[in-house]
Design goal:
By secondary structure, this protein is α/β, with parallel strands linked by helices. Helix content is about 25%, strand content about 30%.
Length: about 270
C-alpha cells in the first residue's frame, strides 16, 4: 500500500478578526516581493470588490505590488480559462471570510479546485491562506450551524464536507469570541476520527508538510481530540436532549507552540 506523499506547499489559517498581522507574516513568506498574490473573495457575498481592494492596499503597504482579485461567483465561473491560468501562476492564494458554504457551492468538483490541490501538493513555494470562513472551508469537514449552549443539544449542530485540503480535521473560527466550544465538542464526538481545531481571532496556524502546525497570533488555538473517548450518547440521542461525552482530550496552544496533526502530539516550543 502506497503512503500518501506529504504536500510541499504551506497552509496559513487565521481565526478571523484583524487580518493585518497575518498579512504582514504572509508578506515575509513570499519568495519575492514581485510574487503573484490572488485574493479570492467568493465567500464574501457583499462588496467583494471592496474587500479585495482593501487587502491589495494592505499588501502594497508591505511592498507587495502584484496583487489581483481572482473572481469566482455567480457571474465568473471557476473554470474560465483566464481564471485557471492566473491560479496556475499564483504564489499565494488568499481566501477571505464570509460564508464558507459559498466556497463549496462554486468550487466543488471544479478544475479550479483540482489545480489548487495540485499546487499545494507539488509546489514548495506555494502558500494557500484563509481567514475566518476562508480557513474553515479548507478542512475536511466544516461547521455550518450551531449556536451557544444549544449546540450541546441533540440535532442542533450541522456540518458539511469542506474543500479537503486539510484532511482529518474539522476547524472552527472566531472560536473564543463567539463561544463556539460546545459546537466543536459536539461535532468531534459525532465524528471522533476528526481532530477539532478552534482558532480564536488574530490567532492561527502555519502548517507545513501537511501536518507540522505552528501557532501564531495573540490568543489561543484549542484542540479537541475524541480518539480515546470512553462514552458518547449521540447514537441514540433524540433532538434537543443534552449530549454526553467522556474522555475528550483538550489542549490550549499559544504562539510559538506546535501541533503534529498526524500524531496529535503537542509541543511546548515549535
Amino acid at each position: 500500500m502506497l503512503t500518501p506523499t506529504a504536500p510541499l506547499g504551506t497552509l496559513v489559517l487565521l481565526g478571523g478578526g484583524d487580518d493585518d498581522p497575518m498579512l504582514a507574516r504572509l508578506a515575509t513568506m513570499l519568495p519575492s516581493p514581485e510574487a503573484a498574490i490572488e485574493v479570492f473573495t467568493t465567500a464574501s457575498r457583499y462588496q467583494p470588490d471592496r474587500t479585495a481592494a482593501a487587502y491589495a492596499h494592505s499588501w502594497l503597504q508591505r511592498g507587495c505590488a502584484n496583487v489581483r482579485h481572482l473572481k469566482v461567483d455567480e457571474h465568473h465561473p471557476a473554470d474560465a480559462p483566464g481564471t485557471l491560468a492566473r491560479l496556475r501562476a499564483a504564489a499565494l492564494v488568499f481566501i477571505s471570510g464570509g460564508d464558507q458554504e459559498r466556497l463549496l457551492e462554486f468550487l466543488a468538483g471544479t478544475g479550479f479546485l483540482a489545480i489548487l490541490r495540485q499546487k499545494y501538493q507539488a509546489e514548495a513555494t506555494f502558500i494557500l491562506a484563509g481567514t475566518s470562513a476562508g480557513a474553515a472551508a479548507l478542512a475536511e469537514v466544516m461547521l455550518v450551524e450551531g449556536h451557544g449552549w444549544r449546540s450541546l443539544l441533540g440535532g442542533r449542530v450541522e456540518v458539511q464536507r469542506g474543500l479537503g485540503l486539510l484532511p482529518g480535521v474539522i476547524l472552527d473560527q472566531h472560536f473564543a469570541e463567539r463561544a463556539r466550544y460546545p459546537r466543536l465538542m459536539h461535532a468531534v464526538l459525532a465524528q471522533p476520527h476528526l481532530l477539532g481545531l478552534g482558532l480564536s481571532e488574530e490567532t492561527g496556524l502555519i502548517i507545513r508538510h501537511g501536518h507540522q502546525a505552528e501557532v501564531f497570533g495573540d490568543e489561543v488555538v484549542f484542540t479537541v481530540d475524541a480518539t480515546d473517548h470512553t462514552h458518547s450518547n449521540l447514537a441514540e440521542l433524540p433532538r434537543n436532549a443534552p449530549i454526553s461525552g467522556h474522555g475528550l482530550l483538550v489542549h490550549l496552544l499559544v504562539a510559538g507552540q506546535g501541533l503534529n496533526l498526524a500524531t496529535r502530539e503537542v509541543n511546548a516550543e515549535f
